[in-house]
Write a structure and sequence with these properties.
This protein has a single domain, classed as P-loop containing nucleotide triphosphate hydrolases (Rossmann fold, 3-Layer(aba) Sandwich), CATH 3.40.50. It has eight helices and nine strands. Helix 2 packs across helix 3 and helix 2 runs parallel beside helix 4. It is globular. The N and C termini lie far apart (about 40 Å).
Length: about 240
């Protein structure tokens, strides 16, 4: 288990994010602490991706502030982000990982060992020489996870990591996420799948129209939601 990151807690203080006249996040006050995965759920357009990108530091608040371990201008040295549709470099699997290790300033003497460790962690042993763009969708997502882990992050943001994957590929990704979380890395992820949230989350944050409707531990959220919107979402009803 690794020590707690200086990036944690990540705190939103009255954070609003606008895109033109559209409010993407609306005056959020929330704190992300170390521990089991925090899973964001909510309908399309609810603000999940914007929340993740703002927490990573990719989007600056229009109002309010975000702090990482109490610092407002913390460089993302121990934070990593996996996008919903990660781009594969025109290189081999090993080449993609080597590029990530160079970007993370990992000494070249450690590259081969670290590449082997990362390939084993995500179940891509034996595929190191294969062109990354010839991998299946699930394999590409596993490679994207390995590239993110090359940064040795303390906080890992995942945007819909199993979107469009079949059940077998989804299970493989979920198993990797469990292993990542068990290693002490804080996982913050979004999903449309309430079942996936149930399987992975320590706590759940329900977003709707850029607002946090409810936040609770996974068992409490699923069995005794406090708000009408959360009860509707758990029941499979549409939030509009």
């Amino acid at each position: 288990m690794r020590s707690a990151s200086s990036d944690l807690p990540i705190r939103f203080d009255a954070v609003t994010v606008r895109s033109g006249a559209v409010i993407m996040l609306d005056c959020l006050d929330v704190q992300i602490e170390a521990g089991a995965p925090t899973v964001l759920i909510g309908p399309n357009g609810s603000g999940k991706t914007t929340f993740l990108r703002t927490a990573m530091g990719l989007i600056a608040p229009s109002e309010g502030r975000v702090t990482w371990g109490g610092a407002e201008s913390a460089p993302p040295l121990r934070r990593a982000f996996v996008f919903q549709r990660p781009a594969m470099l025109r290189r081999s699997v090993q080449g993609n990982l080597r590029y990530a290790l160079i970007a993370a300033q990992v000494p070249r003497a450690r590259h081969e060992t670290r590449i082997g460790e990362l390939l084993a962690l995500v179940g891509l042993d034996g595929l190191g020489r294969r062109p990354a763009r010839r991998l299946s969708g699930g394999e590409q997502q596993r490679l994207a996870l390995a590239r993110a882990l090359a940064r040795d992050p303390a906080v890992l943001f995942l945007d819909e990591p199993t979107a469009s994957l079949d059940p077998a590929a989804t299970k493989a990704i979920e198993d990797i996420i469990r292993a990542i979380a068990a290693s002490g890395i804080k996982v913050v992820m979004s999903t449309h799948d309430l079942g996936e949230a149930k399987r992975l989350a320590g706590d759940i944050v329900l977003l709707h129209r850029g607002c946090i409707v409810e936040r609770a531990g996974v068992r409490e959220f699923l069995t005794a939601p406090r708000t009408a919107a959360a009860r509707a979402f758990v029941a499979g009803e549409l939030l509009v």
